[in-house]
Amino acid sequence: MTPALESExxxxxxxxxxxxxxxxxxxxxxxxxxxxxxxxMALDHRLTADSQYLWTLPMFHCDGWCFxxxxxxxxxxxxCIPRIEPERVWQLFREGITHFCAAPTVCTMLMAxxxxxRLPRKVRLFTAGAPPSPTLIAxxxxxxxxxxxxxxxxxxxxxxxxPAPGQDRLPSAERAALQARQGFANVCAGEVRVxxxxxxxxxxxxxxxxxxxxxxxxxxxxxxxxxDATAKAFHGGWFHSxxxxxxxxxxxIELRDRKKDIIISGGxxxxxxxxxxxxxxxxxxxxxxxxxxxxxxxxxxxxxxxTLAEGKQATADDIIQHCKxxxxxxxxxxxxxxxxxxxxxxxxxxxYVLREKEWRGHSKRIH
Length: 367
Description:
single chain; alpha/beta; Rossmann fold; GMP Synthetase, Chain A, domain 3; four-stranded antiparallel beta sheet
């Protein structure tokens, strides 16, 4: 017989971070946080006993964003597949799947499939794991996916870009740009702020950048057997995400970059997320990653690593000139390299692999 819990704060699972920036850390989830985040997911994803939830999201990643418990709470049907085979996934969509969760890289894979085509009825999609571009969101909407963007880390599954009343009547490009924001704390999460180095809130003007910090119900207990890393993460009583963001006048947050990824070129900050979104808006681009590379004059400049869509062609100059048409010229990539992107098992791009190659022999610290 399983003994009763003595406290709702007792550990329930340990999830290891993806290791995109260093040695994975063991993140301790507690019963209260898992329970409340599962309820938030069931509510926000609109799960019911009639729902058919497809597991394209690994259950080992952040406890499957707590959906094993969310689907159980709603009485939904779980449809499990051993691996992501796009043609099979599209078949399942057409056979009755109503909900699924996937990282943007999985969405990109599905869009590129020969089996892709507009579905006869809407399928609800939660996407997270990396900031999705407005281009990706708009393309998925064209295929009849009802998409919500959620944000968090292994340590804190936290926000959702809840659409405002009337947002569905906006032009598709404007609607997709709003959906690409990270939004607001979910109904059970707690508090989220964007702060400067002194822990003061930055102005809610959509321009001033600061670090995203959180506290509340669904934040981890700490790192397994790593008290120093735990103390550092919770400095000042808030969990420090390491993500740089702005807060918009409506209260929504929007990521600009990871602290380690921001490009400082000639004293100007350049968001790799902003440049990536510009690159993938080119019609020939399937996916892209942008990093800083060394430059004798400016210190560092952006470089784009690009995977082209099957059957499409573009040169490096095509990509650069396209970006100059949608960005300030100094933000456009100075170099473009074509080929597949290195990824983790959960589909996250391993930027440190790209940085290591570009900065070998230079003085910049490799993350």
